[in-house]
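Need a sequence for this fold. Nothing fancy.
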């Protein structure tokens, strides 16, 4: 089997490859490139799971970055156990053919408790005093200490949130090099998230994202050169492209006004109680799973959604089959935004009653995806003083609330999740010259192409 690296540069699309990415443009021009017709929803967990299983969400079960766990009556995002993926992975199949095959998974999602030989993924520490500390989880467990002794602590707080920088992607890249030097896996899966951040924050505005493009270009150059100099073939791909948006759509607020959302008063603030709500939406970028706990309301809910500004399409049972989303984890209805819109998780009608986590970076407690976490509240006049005071409390061991995120969804200018109209905004797949690669491929075809590259 041929040693292979699959480099996943999130949000890399044909639209952003050009003058600000000179290395990538030249390297891609020397290879074969295909446009990937993305899975719906075009989000990280669903896309990666399709690539690694060759199965649609209807079979692998990954219908989004999170979903409503019906047996627990809880909405959970960004779970990490690989047991949630319900079909075989690419490495399981290749290992059956060759017991010497090994795989390293550097930050692709559902990376804990899998059958991968080597794995590294973010996993904060949560001491009993309420602190959140940067850390990672690895397989084997000792790899964590070895990497952090060489590279320093994984920079979690630059991985997501208003303080995101290239540093987390650099750490991942250096970790991938170390894993190659120490273990020489047959397949090395590497996830580089840097472009995801400011493209969601600003949309396709080159005056604001050109620095990010140059940074990821330099990082790609370093990584690709490193692996190619070791005689390892590199496949480059992405999961989705980001497009500019201007309209947030608050589905749960619409349901709240109809009296369908049940909230619980917690110290004067509202939290969503999904198990007793008649209708609620699990918002995930430009796609939302709408659960209708009262079946008598299904037709009424569908009609309401179809006339909601910003909604392009509502998938019922038959529609979900068309998009390979007919799985028990999906909502009773799946809603797709139009090109200018995206869905918030917001369910409160009065900001003074928003839950305390709404103003924090809190990806696990929020009942939906929240890209506003990338933005520092512009109402904070001297951010460095407010944040510095909270960090000081943290270091002194006091309880603190890092409530620095605004509640203004209009600040988000980029989104993904729907299938865009233009091929320029779709993900890409790049491999070596000489292969018979179609100009456009289905998302599940990526699985077959990776296997073919390794076995040729």
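Here you go.
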């Amino acid at each position: 089997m041929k040693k292979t690296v699959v480099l996943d540069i999130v949000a890399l699309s044909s639209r952003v490859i050009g003058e600000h990415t000179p290395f990538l443009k030249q390297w891609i021009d020397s290879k074969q490139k295909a446009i990937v017709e993305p899975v719906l929803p075009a989000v990280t967990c669903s896309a990666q799971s399709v690539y690694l299983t060759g199965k649609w969400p209807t079979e692998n079960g990954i219908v989004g970055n999170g979903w409503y766990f019906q047996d627990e009556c809880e909405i959970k995002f960004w779970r990490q156990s690989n047991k949630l993926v319900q079909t075989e992975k690419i490495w399981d199949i290749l290992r059956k053919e060759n017991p010497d095959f090994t795989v390293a998974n550097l930050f692709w999602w559902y990376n804990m408790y899998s059958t991968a030989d080597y794995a590294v993924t973010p996993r904060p520490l949560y001491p009993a005093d309420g602190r959140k500390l940067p850390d990672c989880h690895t397989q084997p467990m000792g790899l964590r200490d070895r990497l952090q002794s060489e590279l320093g602590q994984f920079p979690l707080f630059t991985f997501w949130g208003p303080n995101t920088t290239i540093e987390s992607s650099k750490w991942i890249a250096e970790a991938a090099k170390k894993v190659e030097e120490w273990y020489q896996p047959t397949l090395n899966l590497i996830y580089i998230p840097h472009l995801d951040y400011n493209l969601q924050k600003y949309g396709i505005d080159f005056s604001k994202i050109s620095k990010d493009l140059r940074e990821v270009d330099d990082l790609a150059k370093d990584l690709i050169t490193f692996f190619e100099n070791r005689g390892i073939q590199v496949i480059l791909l992405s999961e989705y492209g980001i497009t500019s948006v201007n309209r947030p759509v608050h589905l749960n607020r619409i349901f709240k006004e109809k009296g369908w959302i049940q909230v619980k008063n917690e110290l004067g603030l509202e939290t969503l109680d999904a198990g007793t709500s008649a209708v609620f939406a699990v918002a995930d970028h430009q796609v939302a799973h709408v659960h209708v706990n009262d079946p008598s309301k299904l037709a009424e809910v569908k009609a309401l959604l179809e006339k909601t500004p910003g909604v392009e399409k509502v998938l019922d049972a038959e529609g979900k089959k068309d998009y390979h989303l007919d799985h028990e984890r999906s909502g009773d209805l799946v809603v797709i935004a139009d090109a200018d819109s995206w869905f918030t998780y917001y369910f409160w009608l009065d900001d003074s009653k928003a839950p305390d986590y709404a103003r924090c970076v809190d990806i696990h407690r929020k009942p939906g995806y929240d890209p506003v976490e990338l933005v520092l509240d512009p109402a904070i006049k001297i951010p460095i003083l407010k944040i510095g005071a909270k960090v000081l409390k943290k270091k002194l061991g006091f309880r603190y609330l890092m409530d620095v995120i605004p509640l203004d969804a209009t600040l988000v200018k980029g989104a993904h999740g729907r299938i865009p109209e233009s091929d320029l905004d779709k993900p890409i797949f790049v491999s070596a010259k000489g292969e018979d690669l179609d100009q456009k491929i289905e998302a599940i075809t990526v699985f077959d192409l990776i296997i073919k590259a390794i076995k040729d």
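For context: The chain has two domains: 4-244+419-455, 247-412.
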